[in-house]
What does this fold into?
Amino acid sequence: MSSTTVVSAIGPTTIDPCTNGSDTTKPDIEWRFVVLKKGHSVLYTLPLKSGQTGATIMQLLKKEYEATKPAAHWFYDHLQLEDAVISQSCIGDPEAQDYPRKVIIESSTPRVDLTKAFHDLSLLHGTDFIRLHEQFSVGVGPRSISHQCHAILIKKATSKYMVIGAVTAAILFSIIFGIVTGLLVKDAKIGLTTSAGIVGIFAFIQASLCGAGSLRSNRPL
It folds into this structure.
């Protein structure tokens, strides 16, 4: 889908492909962001003002994200931000303001810079943040960024350190429980079998939880 150029009294203006050609000139700026809720990709908007610093924008984004009341899971320990491409089939009339709504995410790219800035506002300086990330803006842009509709995807993730810690704790617990069982029944084989069985159960539970979380995060909706 190609962008459209409108010639006005102040010169040519490129229309955001996400607006379907509608004129949505507004005094304020809105960014799109997506939250994964119950296996669905839900699109929200973040009201902004020109000249706001990156730190202010990230602080507002964090506040709006928390307002969506995302589900809490113990096996997720941090948030990750990505640049998501939303299917054009999901984009309606921006003037309708029908947010939040479910959308289809065609693809997403991890943004390490945005993720770090989201967790540490002191990394951001200056007032050029909106221009540098204007692909997330709703409505008319000063120039064509791409022929795709972009949004910030906020998703939960599990760090490798948490996985290693959980596996280590499960193994230690299994060994101790197996030793105690072997001593009680005075049979080393039963103790070893018990330890192996507990390790297998822990591994199955952990794999199931991580697999379910991965399916929810990557489910196309």
In short: The chain has a mean pLDDT of 74.
